From TrEMBL, chains A, B:
Coiled coil feature spans: none
Membrane topology recorded in Swiss-Prot or TrEMBL: Multi-pass membrane protein
Single annotated GO MF: calcium-activated cation channel activity
Subcellular localization, as worded in the UniProt entry: Membrane
Organism: Capsella rubella
Family: Belongs to the CSC1 (TC 1.A.17) family.
Name of protein: CSC1-like protein ERD4
Pfam assignment, any one: PHM7_cyt
Keywords of the record: Calcium, Ion channel, Ion transport, Membrane, Transmembrane, Transmembrane helix, Transport
Transmembrane residue ranges: 6-27, 85-107, 150-169, 365-391, 457-479, 491-512, 564-595, 616-635, 641-661
Domain CSC1/OSCA1-like N-terminal transmembrane, chain residue ranges per copy: 5-170
CSC1/OSCA1-like 7TM region domain segment(s): 363-635
Length: 725, 725
C-alpha cells in the first residue's frame, strides 16, 4: 500500500467520524430521540437531560464524560462497567507512557538509517520489492543488520514491558478494591446469601430431594441454614408462561387499537392470524389467557412435585455463612454436593444445573476441541481473503473489473478499505456460535458464559486475524519448508520477518476501527432508524415501544476481545513501527470517551459479576505482552543482533509476574473473602424476599399476595427465624 | 550373571532369612528382650504377651499378624499405618492377579520360542554375547521379531493395566472411607478445633499482634471464635528448656547412683565433665536447675511479650467452624491471612511458621532445583558403581584381586551380591539430606515434610537406581549418538532395548531386599544389641532405659519410596520377564506380614495425618504404571510388532484415570469435608485443654496447677463460653 492511499483512508475515516459526531449532537437534542440516546437514564428514573446537554456545543458530551467519576459509573452501570473503564485507562496509560519515550527516540533513529534504500539499490530485497512506502522508513525495517542502533530497540522492549508491569499491578490492585467495596456494600443482595449446590446424590428411600437437601445442610449448619430452593425442569412451564405473556401483550395491543379507533379489532385464529375463523380479538385473547392460566397452574404443581433436579440454591441467614459455605468441601466424595457461589437470580441458567461434574468436564474438553477446529478451519478463508484483496491479485482473478479499478479515486478507496471490510464482516459472524458453545459447557451463570465466549473469541481473533494476516503473504511460499522440518524457532523467525510488511495494513485497520466503529457507536444511527420505523408501523402499546428502544447491555463477549485484538496488534508493532502507538492511543482514548457516554446514558447492564472479568483481561494483556516479547526476540534475532538473548530475562519476568499476580489477587475473584463478607448490613435482611428473588417468573403465582411456592422448597424454620434475628 | 550364581544368591538369602526368623522366635520369648519386641504394646499399657505368643511355634507371630483386623491396626498404630497396609495389600492384589494370568501363559510362550539361540547361532547379537542365561529364555528377549506371539504380550500389558485400575480405584475409595471415619470419630482431637493462620500483616498502631488477630477473627466469626495462640520465636527459650531437662536427667542419674552405691557421686564442672573443679553432683545439679528455672521464667515472659511472629493457631468452638474456616479465603489480598488446617500439636514446626507465602514458594522452587541437581549429580557415581561391579570389569581395573576371585565360591558370592550391596549402602546416605531440604521449604507440619521428602526420594531412586542401572551398560556406548540428535523416541527405544539385559540384576536385587531386609527388620538384631549394651553400661535411671528401647516410628520417608522402587521395577519387568512377579509377590506379602507384626508390637507412630500419604502413593503407583506402558510401547516397537500403537489408548486411559481419581477423591484429603466434621462428639469438648495442647513444653509453666500462658494468648470470652455450651 502506498503512502497516499494510507492518508486518504485515514482522512476519509476522520471525516466520517466528524460527520457522525455532529449528527449525534443534532439528533440527541431532539426530544423524539430521547429514548435512543438516554435509555439508561430513563430506566433509572433520572432526568434525561441535565442543563448543559442542551447547548449546541458538540463537545458537551465529552465534558460530561470527563467529569463523571468512577463512583458515578458504579452507581449507574455497575462494577463490571467500571472495571471495563479500568481496562481502557490502563491500556491507555501503557501506550501513552510507552509512546512518550518511544516516539521521540525510535522514529529519528529509524528514519536516519538506510536499510531499505540500500537493499533496493542492491536488489537484495526480493520479497517486498516496490511495496515499501514512506511509512516503512520510520520502522525497524529501515535499520541495517547488526547495527548498534538496535540497542535502542532492545531498550524500548524493556521500557514497554516495565511500563506494562507497573500499570497492570496498579490496575489489579484497584479492581480488587472495587470488587471488595461492592461486595461489602451495606445493601442486601440475594446472591450474597445463597450458594449453588450441584451434583446431589439421589435421596435415600422415603425422602424427597428437598427433604434430603434440607436435612443435609441443617446438620452441617444448624444455626445459619435458612432454606433451600430445588432446581426444577422448567422447559414446559416456561413455554406455557411465554404463551401467556404473548396473549397478554396481544390483548393489550387489541385494547389499545380499540381505544384509538373505536373499532373492536378482529383477527383470524389460524396460522399467523392469516387463515381461519375471524373472531373478536379482545374476547378471544381474554379466553386464551384464562385457559393458559389454568394450564400454567397445573403445570406449576407438576413441576414442583415431579421435576425436581439434582441441583439447588441453598440460602443462609448471613453473608459470611454463605461465603464460607461456597468455599468449603462438603462431601467426602468430591464429585458429590459440589458448591459454588450463587449467581445473581437474573443470570442463573436453569437448564444447565442438572449436568453432572464429570459430564461438565467432558463437555468442556469436547468444546475446546471444537473451538480449536473452528480456529484452524477459519484460517483457510481468512488467508484466502487477505491474499486476494490486494488489487493486483484481484485484477488477475477477476480481469473484467480492470476498467473500474483504473479510475484513480475508486482504486484508492478499494485499496484502502477492501481488506479491512472483508475482515470485519467476517468476524461479525462468530460471537453467537461461541456463546452457544460456551453455554453448552454446562456453566451455571450468564456472566461466566460470556467470559468463556470472550476467551474463545480472543484466541480466534489473535490466531486468525493477527497471525493469519501477518503470515498470509509469506506463508504460502514457506509452508513447504516448514512442513519439511517443523521447528518452533523457524515459526518465530518467519513471523518476525513478515511482521514489518503488515505494519501498514494494521495501521489502517486500527484507524478504520476507531473512526468508523466509534462513530457509529456514538451516533447510534442504526438503532435510531430501526426504532423510528418500529414505532411508526408496529408498536401500539407502551410496552411495545419500550421494547423497541431497549438498548441492551455492553456485550462484553465481543467488545473485550475486539479491544484485545487492537491491544495485541499495538503491542506487537509498538517497537517495530512505533507510529502504531499513536493509533493505539487514539483508539483507546476515543473508546474510553465514547463508551463513557454510552455507559452513562445508553446501555443497561444485564448482569453484575463484581469485576470477575478482570483476571481474564489481565491475563490476556499479559499474554499479548508475552507474544510481543517473543516476537521481538525473533525479530532482533533476524537482524542478527548479538545481544538478542537479553530479551529472555524479560520473557521469564513476564511469566513470574503473571504467577505472582495470580497468587496474590486471583483467589479474591474466584471467591468472596470473608473479611469482605462480614461487613454489617444497613438493615437485617428480609430472608423471604431473598428467597423469592430466585423463583422464576414462570413458577411464581399470579395472585399478588400469595407466594406459597411449596413442594420443592423447604419450610421456614422458627428456629432459624430466631437465630437470624 | 549366570543362572548358577543367581540360584546361589537366592538360596543364601533364603537361608539367612530363615535363620533370622528362628532367632526372632527364640529371642522374643526371653523376658529381658520384651521392650525390644513389644515396645508399642508396653507404651499402650497392654500385656506384651498374649497366651499364644509363648508357644515354641516359630510361626505364631504370623498367625497373629493374619488374624489382626484393620480396626486393630487403626487402634494400635493409627490411620497412617492402616493406609500403608492398604498400599501393601493393593500392590499385592495387583501382582497376584497379574501373575495368575501372566505366569501360566507368557512363560511357556517365551520358553518355546528361540530368538536368543538363533541370534547367538547367527552371531547377530553383538551387545549381550555370552551373558544370557537360562532365565533369559523365559523372557520376552526370547521372542523373535514380528512374531504373532507378541499379541500375548500386548494382551498382558492390557491385563496388568486393567487390574491396576481396578485395585487402585477400590483402594482409594477404601482409604477415603478410613480417613472419613477417623475424622468423624467422637473423640476430641485438638487439631480438629484449630486452624493455622500465617502471613499476617503487621497490626495497626496501638494494637499488639494478638489483639489484631483476635479482633480480626472475632469480627468474622462472632459466635464460633474461641481464642488464638500467637506463634513465638522459641529458639532461645527452647535451648534453656533443653538445658534444664538435661540437668534434671543428670540429677536423677546422680540420685540413682547415690541410691545404688550409697556414695554421693561427684563430677567436674568444666568441658564434658573432664576438667575443672570437682563438686558434689546432686548439689551442683540442684543449684543449676534452680538457676535455669529462673532464667526460663524470665525468657518465657520475654518471648511472649516481644517475640510474637506473624503466625497463629486460631481455635474455634466447633469442628465444623474450624474445618470451614481452614478452607475459606479470609483476606481480599490472597497472600495475607492465609489459612490451613492446623497440624497436630506434636508435628507443628514452629520455626517455619514465620516464613511468608512468596518466600515459601521461592524456597520450594530453589529446593526443587537443588534436588534435581542432586539426582543428576548422583547419576555419575551410580553409573560408575554398576559399570565396575561386573567381575570382569573389576578384574581389569584391579588386576591383583584376580587370584581371590578365581576361587569359585568367593567368585559366585561376589558376583551375586556386590552390585546390590553397593547400591543399598549408597542409597542409605540420602534420606537425611532430603528431609532437611524438605523442611527448609517452609512446610508447617512434620507429616508434610515427610511426604515431601518421600516424593523426592522416589524420584531419586527411580531415576538413579532403575533407569541408571538399566542404562549403565548401554548408555556409554550410545550417549554420543543421543547427544548428537536428542529425541524422546530414541531414549525410550534405548531404555526398552536395554531393559531385558538388566532383568536378572533386578530379580536378585528384589530377592536380596526382601530376604535380608525383612529378616533384619523382623529380628531387630541391631536395636537389640544396642539396647543391651546401653542398658548394661550407660543407663542408670528408668527414663534412660526407656530412651534406650524406644522404637521410633515406621519412617515412611524411606519405607514408602523403597517399596515404590520395587513396585516400579516389578511393573516394568512384569511382561518382559514375568518371573519377576513371583519375586514382587513374595516381597510384598513378606513385607505385609513382617510389618503387621512390627506395627502391632514395635513401632510407635510419631504423628497422625489421617491417611494424607495415600494420594501420593496412588499417584506414584500410577506413574509406575505409566512408565511401564511407555516402556512396553518402546519395547514392542523395538520388536517391530505391527500393532504396537494399540498401547497408546492404554497410556491415555492412565492419564484420564489419574485425572478422574484426583477430581473425585483428592479434595477430601486436602481438606476436611464438612459432612465429616459435623458429626457429634462424645462429650462437649474442653476448649481450654485443646488450647493448652498447642503450648510447647518450653513455654508452659512448671507449676502444675497454673496454666496462665498470658501475653501471646487472647483472653477467654464469656460470650464464647456461653455460645459453646
Amino acid at each position: 500500500m502506498e503512502f497516499g492511499s494510507f492518508l486518504v483512508s485515514l482522512g476519509t475515516s476522520a471525516v466520517i467520524f466528524v460527520v457522525l459526531m455532529l449528527l449525534f449532537t443534532w439528533l440527541s437534542r431532539k426530544s423524539g430521540n430521547v429514548s435512543i440516546y438516554y435509555p439508561n437514564r430513563i430506566i433509572k428514573g433520572l432526568e434525561p437531560w441535565e442543563g448543559t446537554s442542551l447547548t449546541r456545543n458538540p463537545f458537551a458530551w465529552m465534558r460530561e464524560a470527563f467529569t463523571s467519576s468512577e463512583q458515578d459509573i458504579v452507581n449507574v452501570s455497575g462494577v463490571d462497567t467500571a472495571v471495563h473503564f479500568v481496562f481502557l485507562s490502563t491500556v491507555l496509560g501503557i501506550f501513552a507512557c510507552s509512546g512518550l519515550l518511544l516516539l521521540p527516540t525510535l522514529l529519528p533513529i529509524a528514519a536516519t538509517d538506510h536499510n531499505i534504500k540500500t537493499r533496493v539499490k542492491n536488489g537484495t530485497d526480493t520479497t517486498s520489492k516496490g511495496t515499501f512506502s514512506q511509512l516503512d522508513n520510520l520502522s525497524m525495517a529501515n535499520i541495517t543488520k547488526k547495527s548498534p542502533r538496535l540497542w535502542a530497540f532492545l531498550g524500548a522492549v524493556y521500557w514497554v514491558s516495565l511500563v506494562t508491569y507497573f500499570f497492570l499491578w496498579k490496575a489489579y490492585k484497584h479492581v480488587s478494591t472495587l470488587r471488595a467495596q461492592a461486595l461489602m456494600s451495606a445493601d442486601v443482595k440475594p446472591e450474597q446469601f445463597a450458594i449453588l449446590v450441584r451434583d446431589m446424590p439421589s435421596p435415600p428411600d422415603g425422602q424427597t430431594q428437598k427433604e434430603f437437601i434440607d436435612s443435609y445442610f441443617r446438620e452441617i449448619y444448624p444455626e445459619t441454614f435458612y432454606r433451600s430452593l430445588v432446581m426444577t425442569e422448567n422447559s414446559k412451564v416456561n413455554k406455557i408462561w411465554e404463551k401467556l405473556e404473548g396473549y397478554k401483550k396481544k390483548l393489550a395491543r387489541a385494547e389499545a387499537i380499540s381505544a384509538a379507533t373505536n373499532n373492536r379489532p378482529t383477527n383470524k385464529t389460524g396460522m399467523c392470524g392469516l387463515v381461519g375463523k375471524k373472531v373478536d380479538s379482545i374476547e378471544y385473547y381474554t379466553e386464551l389467557i384464562n385457559e393458559s392460566v389454568a394450564k400454567l397452574e397445573t403445570e406449576q404443581k407438576a413441576v414442583l412435585a415431579e421435576k425436581q433436579q439434582t441441583a439447588a440454591v441453598v440460602f443462609f441467614t448471613t453473608r459470611v455463612a454463605a461465603a464460607s459455605a461456597a468455599q468449603s468441601l462438603h462431601c467426602q466424595m468430591v464429585d458429590k454436593w459440589t458448591v459454588t457461589e450463587a449467581p445473581e437470580p437474573r443470570q442463573l441458567i436453569w437448564q444447565n444445573l442438572n449436568i453432572k461434574l464429570f459430564s461438565r468436564i467432558l463437555r468442556q474438553y469436547v468444546i475446546y476441541f471444537v473451538v480449536a477446529l473452528t480456529i484452524l478451519f477459519y484460517m483457510v478463508p481468512i488467508a484466502f481473503v487477505s491474499a486476494i484483496t490486494t488489487l493486483k491479485n484481484l485484477q488477475k482473478i477477476i480481469p473484467f473489473i480492470k476498467p473500474v479499478v483504473d479510475i484513480a479515486f475508486i482504486r484508492t478507496i478499494l485499496e484502502s478499505f477492501l481488506p479491512q471490510i472483508a475482515l470485519i464482516v467476517f468476524l461479525a459472524m462468530l460471537p453467537k456460535l461461541l456463546l452457544f458453545l460456551s453455554k453448552s459447557e454446562g456453566i451455571p451463570s450468564q456472566s461466566h458464559v460470556i467470559r468463556a465466549a470472550s476467551g474463545k473469541y480472543f484466541y480466534f481473533s489473535v490466531f486468525n486475524v493477527f497471525l493469519g494476516v501477518t503470515l498470509a503473504g509469506t506463508l504460502f511460499n514457506t509452508v513447504k519448508d516448514i512442513a519439511k522440518n517443523p521447528k518452533l524457532d523457524m515459526v518465530i523467525n518467519l513471523l518476525a520477518t513478515s511482521l514489518p510488511k503488515s505494519a501498514t495494513f494494521f495501521l489502517t485497520y486500527v484507524a478504520l476501527k476507531f473512526f468508523i466503529g466509534y462513530g457509529l457507536e456514538l451516533s447510534r444511527i442504526i438503532p435510531l432508524i430501526i426504532f423510528h420505523l418500529k414505532k411508526k408501523y408496529l408498536c401500539k402499546t407502551e410496552a411495545e415501544v419500550k421494547e423497541a428502544w431497549y438498548p441492551g447491555d455492553l456485550s462484553y463477549q465481543t467488545r473485550v476481545p475486539g479491544d484485545m485484538l487492537i491491544l495485541t496488534i499495538t503491542f506487537c508493532y509498538s517497537v517495530i513501527a512505533p507510529l502504531i502507538l499513536v493509533f493505539g492511543i487514539t483508539y483507546f482514548s476515543l473508546g474510553w470517551l465514547v463508551l463513557r457516554n454510552q455507559a452513562l446514558k445508553v446501555y443497561v447492564p444485564s448482569y453484575e459479576s463484581y469485576g470477575r472479568m478482570w483476571p481474564h483481561i489481565h491475563q490476556r494483556i499479559l499474554a499479548a505482552l508475552f507474544l510481543f516479547q517473543v516476537l521481538m526476540f525473533g525479530y532482533l534475532g533476524a537482524k542478527t543482533f548479538f545481544y538478542t538473548a537479553l530479551v529472555i530475562p524479560l520473557i521469564i519476568t513476564s511469566l513470574i509476574f503473571g504467577y505472582v499476580c495470580r497468587q496474590k489477587f486471583y483467589g479474591a475473584f474466584e471467591h468472596t473473602a470473608l473479611e469482605v463478607a462480614c461487613r454489617e448490613l444497613k438493615q437485617s435482611p428480609d430472608l423471604d424476599e431473598i428467597f423469592r428473588a430466585y423463583i422464576p417468573h414462570s413458577l411464581s403465582t399470579h395472585k399478588a399476595e400469595e407466594h406459597e411456592f411449596k413442594g420443592a422448597m423447604s419450610r421456614y424454620q422458627d428456629f432459624n427465624a430466631i437465630s437470624a434475628a
